[in-house]
Amino acid sequence: MSNSKNNVWQQKGKIISNGLLTSNPTFRLVLGMCPTLAVTTSAFSGLGMGLAATVVLVCSNALVSLLRKVIPDKVRIPAFVLIIATFVSLLQMLLQKFIPTLYSMLGVYLPLIVVNCIILARAEAFASVNKVSDSILDGLGMGLGFTLALTLLGFIREFIGSGTIFMGSIGATEFGLTLGKLPEYSMSLFVLPAGGFLTLGLVMAAFNAIYSAAEKKKKEKMEAIAAQIEEAKKEAEDFAKLDAELAAANEAQVNTEENKAENEEVAK
Q1: CA 66 to CA 20: how far, in whole Å?
Q2: What pLDDT score does 232 carry?
Q3: What angle do CA 79, 83, 84 make, to 5 degrees?
C-alpha cells in the first residue's frame, strides 16, 4: 500500500518537474518566444507575465479536461481558444483593477496570452486526454517553468541593462533595489530587443549544457547499475554451474561406491 502511494506521488511530481526542467517551455521547447523577448526587460514584468500565464494554464487545463468528453472533436480547437480567452479576459480585468502598473507593463502581450502556443498546446496535447487533477499539475508545472524562465531573463537584463533589481510597484507600494552607482555603468543594450535575443541565447545554452551534463551523468549511473546487474547475473550463473558440477561429481562418487559395494558382494 505504501509503495503504491509513493508511486502515485512520484508520478504527480514527475508531471510538475516535466514543465520545470525536462520540457521547460522556454529553454527546452522554445515556445512563447514573443512575450519572452518582449516583457523580460525587468524581473517584475517577467514574473508578472509568467504568473499570469500560469493562472490561465491551470484554469484552462482544468476546464478542458473537465469538458474533454463533451466537446466534439471537430470544434475542439475553437472551444479551447474560447475557454482560454475567457480566463484571459477575467485576468485582464483583475490586473487592471488591482495591479494597474503591471497591466500597463505587459501591455498588448497580456491579451496575446490567448494565442500563446504553450497554453493551446497543453490543452490539446495533455488536458484533452487526461483527468482533471493531472491536467492541473501539468498546467502548474509548465506555468512555473515559464515563470522561472521569464523571471531569470528579466533579472539578468534588468541588472545589466538598468543596474536595478526587481524594480516595480503594486498600487501605491513601490519596491526594488538600486545598487549604488551601477545604473551609471549599465549597458542599455540589454533592455533593447537585441539584448533580449543575446540574453535568451546565452541562458538557453547554459541551461541546455547543464541539463545535458545531468542527463549524461544519469545515463552513466544507469549503465553502471546495469553493468553491476549483469555481473551479478553472471556470478549467479557461474555459481549455478559450479553447483551442478559438484552435484554431478557427488552423484558419480556415490555411483562408484555403490558399484564397488556390489562388486565386493559378488566376489564374496
Answers
A1: 24
A2: 83
A3: 115
Burial, 127: exposed, middle or buried (Cβ in 10 Å; 0-12, 13-18, 19+)? buried
Give the pLDDT score at 101. Answer: 86
Q: What is the pLDDT of residues 2-42, one digit of tens each?
A: 666 777 788 888 899 889 888 899 999 898 898 899 999 99
Task: Quote the mean pLDDT of the chain.
Answer: 88
Residues making up the chain, counted from first to last: 268
pTM of the complete model: 0.82
Sign of the torsion angle spanned by Cα atoms 130, 134, 139, 144: negative
Domains of the chain, by residue range, sit at 2-191, 211-268
Amino acid (one-letter) located at 129: V
Instruction: Provide the β-strand partners of residue 173.
Output: 170
What is the CA 191 to chain-centroid distance, rounded?
27
Question: Could you tell me if residue 224 is left (phi over 0), alpha (psi between -120 and 50 degrees) or otherwise beta?
Answer: alpha
Angle 248-253-259 from CA coordinates, rounded to 5°: 125
**Which sign, positive or negative, has the C-alpha torsion 30, 31, 33, 35?**
negative
Beta strands in the chain (DSSP E): 164-170, 173-178
How many H helices and E strands in the chain?
8, 2
